[in-house]
């Protein structure tokens, strides 16, 4: 599970299927019946299948079509008259038929079909346009009156045009497919070669190379999944000097506490004995509750799933390590992403250090005035980069807290597809908190045109539930276009100056957060 | 029918509040999309949904703000109560603790929302009747004593979900109508001021969530 393209969106179907058990006949033997929670493996497996959903669908349709065309074949040879074929899937074993049919048609019409211009038939395109099979002109049935010459000519012409059009389209699609394949290969090659560079050159000389231009550029392209965890760990650092042994100590403390809670709560109902006890218990309860609600579509962290206990351990140990912060919703997502990329103790170390960064600490402590500062700094760059949208939002008094809270608390892992979120994390590890806000502006830029057409509630709905087809190329090109410069001041300077005029400026931003 | 969706007479902002895990998000998804998720994701901050319904012959668009239930977030989320004309205070009938804190939620609500807000107490998860910890009579009495509407629901099997939202929207509607009659001279009604604000631009994207089911 080092590679996290277990994109949560892919498994959407599964959760939907599970969400509608009441529509199924009870006691039915439908094989697609919801998996009982005791079958995590089965569930995970199914999630995997759903992940490959599109190719499965292809497989089925192909099989279906092969069968159908086979069934139809005899009819082609015997019965005269009009024949309409269904859309024939590309790359099926039909070129022979289509050629015969084309020849027949050519023989009958006495014309040769003009092949498309050679430029379109460049080199070795691995397919044969099959559009000619779509419609076959044959003798009209005897019971219909003959067409006039004019009409026949017109129909022939229309037919030729249709065929030419279809061919053009097919060639275009084939090119597109090839291009996508080429890009995918290139991407894989890039990842492979990048991995070699990371492993052989950069990681052994981390301190010396991490800030070089070459490394930074390579970093922006996205970290290869196999070194991702390692680079994150190094970049986040270990200011807190946590060792794996220390983690074990806090973990065993957490386990003791869980045990004592399950005992006391069953023995005597301590009503309002100690408020903090209830709070802590609530915190543990909350962790339990949230774990099953963390990337639910992956079926990895849910009860019985392979990483359920791990996530529980990391979060539990953290509440013992930092009782001053405790467990706050949103943490489970961060811990989960780390667990997907790192070993248990390393995940904990990275987690604790990450949450110790000023921005994360401000948010997870729900330090209002600090959060307002971050929102205010964000708005400075928002206005600078996207003035039109900024005014549009202002006109609806739509404040950044409405969408930023979710984005910042979970470091985008809840709102973006997981693979894309990991790429955001990559650069976040390189650039720090500034990049979180830059990503937010990148998202706004990407959807600026749509957002400008929306009113308050639609914007709010849109931004708290982003489209699922968001791609990393598009998002990162939008992020790259965001300038984190405000009249020569960088993020850190803007933020620092906002911190300075703490007292006066307090009331001018994010009215929604003033209470 | 996009045009029907955007063609409304009133917009009512309704907030969903209550402890974490009582089923707020599922109540909302059941009402707006007829969906239920056993493992829906934790709500962080606030999420939104809308649905348009008919009250009498008026088209009412419910703009529902689904807030995070975590205690720590309350300071943030309470800011979102402003301008709300209705609130559903949700608890889980199988967890007494979520009912015990309803008082605190109400206090938060009245501190930040307008006094005229219509509040409904919702006991969710009636499908888990065998694990019930909060007797219905007790909750009903509490609601009566505090001037709250009351209903028990199950987002899982859909029991009363539609009714819950419809009841509160109707109640808000009647309240608005009464207020309108009272100060027929003034053109805006404090309860409905949201609508004038939100109806202004008609160029809005059509979203599937509001299409009649």
TrEMBL record, chain A:
GO terms for cellular component: cytoplasmic vesicle; vacuole. It comes from the Eukaryota. Residues 149-184 form a coiled coil. The keyword Coiled coil applies. This is TBC12 protein. Residues 1-45 are annotated as: Disordered. It holds the Pfam family RabGAP-TBC. The gene is Tbc1d12. Residues 1-13 have a biased composition (Polar residues). One of its GO terms (molecular function) is GTPase activator activity. Residues 14-25 have a biased composition (Basic and acidic residues). The keyword 4Fe-4S does not apply. Keywords: Coiled coil. SMART domains: TBC (SM00164). SUPFAM superfamilies: Ypt/Rab-GAP domain of gyp1p. InterPro entries: Rab-GAP-TBC_dom (IPR000195), Rab-GAP_TBC_sf (IPR035969), Rab_GAP_TBC_domain (IPR050302). Residues 222-432 form the Rab-GAP TBC domain. GO terms for biological process: vesicle-mediated transport.
From TrEMBL, chain B:
SMART domains: RAB, RAN, RAS, RHO. Residues 204-213 have a biased composition (Basic and acidic residues). GO terms for cellular component: endomembrane system; pseudopodium membrane. CDD domains: Rab11_like. It is a lipid-anchor. Residues 183-203 have a biased composition (Polar residues). NCBIfam families: small_GTP. Belongs to the small GTPase superfamily. Rab family. This is Ras-related protein Rab-25. It comes from Ibidorhyncha struthersii.
